[in-house]
């Protein structure tokens, strides 16, 4: 939307939405650089003004690279994305675009994504994704699994465990059905206490908004049942971590106008064509592979993230997380798999990933791959857990957050694609986080050093 055009000029009236649906309050929400969701509760009587001008925030009070001296940051709600809370219909949640002095705040994650969507659209590319959001259900203090009977060494798809947690999972699924998201399966995942819920793929901005709301909804419903839901990448030592795999395809138009998957081919050539990726799909994948080590700074954004992608064998026998930059066909032991024609699955992201930056970095890397006609490299049709030592020349993924930040900082084209202001702010604040982590004293240090 042009900066001089008000949302209310072209979008649905939130005041009318409230009147028609009995909404008393709006939760105007934005997501900061660290993925924290921030909100103000606005009575329906005041929503017209907020839709026009935005709700005011002090950006410095959140994880944005701003100071107390900056002017008010205004969160302008996007009425097309409004969601009435199914469990408390008097409230509606609406994601917002951050504006300061009539200009988009370039470091704000939803703005980063919106800009990249527009860039891709100019080249006739409309990215759609489906995500696999994994989470654990814990006791309220976060110290124990919520289900004390969930002790199997191979707990994936455990039917009895599903029934013991049925009320929580069923309630979340019911709400997704009510919202029209098209949920199609939920399951107990590979770790004790871990769950995954899937819904239909869609345009990346829609999916990012849904992803944000899903995390909010899941945590809220868990709390309602006296539990705690966490998307932390590796909340329990020895168990499989929380991934957030993304299934990626590119289409000829957005939304329901999409008719042709431009990644799909029946008669492709080469190793990518053999598994159903078109030339454009191959080069988009090439961009992902080319920038993979730098991608990790965004897709795996916390100190804890690297406990997942560099984990030793878990109790179940597999980490289900990559540690090397490789791709394959329908094989879950690689960073990228191509499960069928016309799409590929990026298995690198984890549960801590910022919903908007996940989609943005996919577009940024993929667009660069298409523009530069990047090759994805050799397809490895091997079990990486058993035969990964045979791979030669494929980079290892970063061992820690600092390494990932350094890889991102070195990747000039990716930084530029994500936006120089965003990249500078993100690197600055993430380096501060790393430095804070390095000042932390742990029991591990005392156990190994006290008697030296």
Features:
single chain; 452 residues; alpha+beta; Ubiquitin-like (UB roll); Creatine Kinase, Chain A, domain 2; 2 domains; nine-stranded mixed sheet; 18% strand; disordered N terminus
Describe it.
The protein is an alpha+beta fold and 452 residues long. It folds into two domains: 7-98, Roll (Ubiquitin-like (UB roll)), CATH 3.10.20.70; 116-423, Creatine Kinase, Chain A, domain 2 (2-Layer Sandwich), CATH 3.30.590. It has helices at residues 7-10, 14-21, 47-53, 109-122, 159-164, 166-179, 204-224, 270-274, 279-290, 292-299, 305-309, 355-372, 384-387, 401-410, 412-418, 420-438, 443-449; strands spanning 25-31, 37-43, 55-57, 73-77, 83-84, 91-100, 103-104, 126-138, 185-188, 194-198, 202-203, 228-230, 244-251, 327-328, 336-340, 343-346. Strands 8, 9, 10, 11, 12, 13, 14, 15 and 16 form a nine-stranded mixed β-sheet that branches. Strands 1, 2, 3, 4, 5, 6 and 7 form a seven-stranded mixed β-sheet that branches. A hairpin with a 5-residue loop joins strand 1 (25-31) and strand 2 (37-43). The radius of gyration is 22 Å and the shape is globular.
């Amino acid at each position: 939307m042009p900066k001089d055009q008000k949302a209310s000029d072209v979008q649905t009236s939130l005041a009318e939405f409230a009147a028609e649906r009995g909404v008393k309050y709006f939760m105007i929400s934005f997501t900061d650089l660290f993925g924290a969701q921030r909100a103000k509760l606005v009575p329906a009587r005041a929503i017209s003004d907020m839709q026009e001008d935005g709700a005011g925030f002090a950006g410095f009070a959140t994880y944005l690279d701003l100071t107390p001296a900056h002017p008010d940051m205004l969160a302008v709600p996007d009425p097309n994305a409004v969601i009435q809370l199914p469990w408390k219909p008097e409230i509606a949640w609406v994601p917002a675009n951050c504006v300061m002095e009539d200009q988009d705040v370039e470091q704000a994650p939803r703005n980063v994504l919106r800009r990249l969507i527009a860039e891709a659209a100019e080249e006739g590319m409309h990215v759609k994704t489906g995500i696999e959001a994994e989470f654990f259900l814990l006791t309220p203090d976060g110290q124990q699994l919520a289900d004390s009977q969930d002790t199997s060494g191979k707990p994936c798809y455990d039917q009895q465990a599903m029934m013991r947690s049925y009320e929580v999972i069923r309630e979340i699924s019911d709400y997704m059905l009510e919202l029209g998201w098209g949920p199609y399966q939920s399951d107990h995942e590979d770790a004790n206490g871990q769950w995954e819920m899937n819904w239909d793929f869609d345009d990346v901005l829609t999916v990012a908004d849904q992803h944000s709301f899903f995390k909010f909804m899941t945590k809220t419903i868990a709390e309602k049942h006296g539990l705690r839901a966490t998307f932390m990448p590796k909340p329990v030592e020895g168990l499989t971590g929380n991934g957030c795999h993304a299934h990626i395809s590119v289409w000829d138009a957005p939304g329901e106008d999409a008719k042709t998957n431009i990644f799909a081919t029946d008669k492709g050539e080469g190793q990518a064509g053999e598994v159903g990726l078109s030339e454009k799909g191959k080069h988009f994948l090439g961009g992902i592979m080319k920038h993979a080590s730098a991608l990790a700074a965004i897709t795996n954004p916390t100190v804890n993230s690297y406990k997942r992608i560099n984990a030793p064998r878990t109790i179940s026998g597999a980490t289900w997380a990559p540690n090397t930059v490789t791709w394959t066909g329908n094989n879950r032991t690689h960073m990228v798999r191509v499960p069928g024609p016309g799409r590929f699955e990026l298995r690198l992201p984890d549960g801590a990933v910022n919903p908007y930056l996940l989609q943005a970095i996919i577009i940024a890397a993929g667009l660069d791959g298409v523009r530069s006609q990047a090759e994805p490299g050799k397809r490895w049709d091997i079990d990486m857990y058993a035969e990964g030592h045979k791979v030669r020349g494929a980079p290892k993924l970063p061992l820690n957050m600092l390494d990932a930040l350094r890889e991102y900082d070195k990747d000039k084209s990716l930084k530029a694609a994500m936006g120089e202001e965003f990249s500078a702010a993100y690197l600055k604040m993430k380096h501060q986080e790393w430095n804070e982590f390095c000042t932390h004293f742990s029991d591990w240090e005392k156990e190994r050093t006290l008697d030296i």
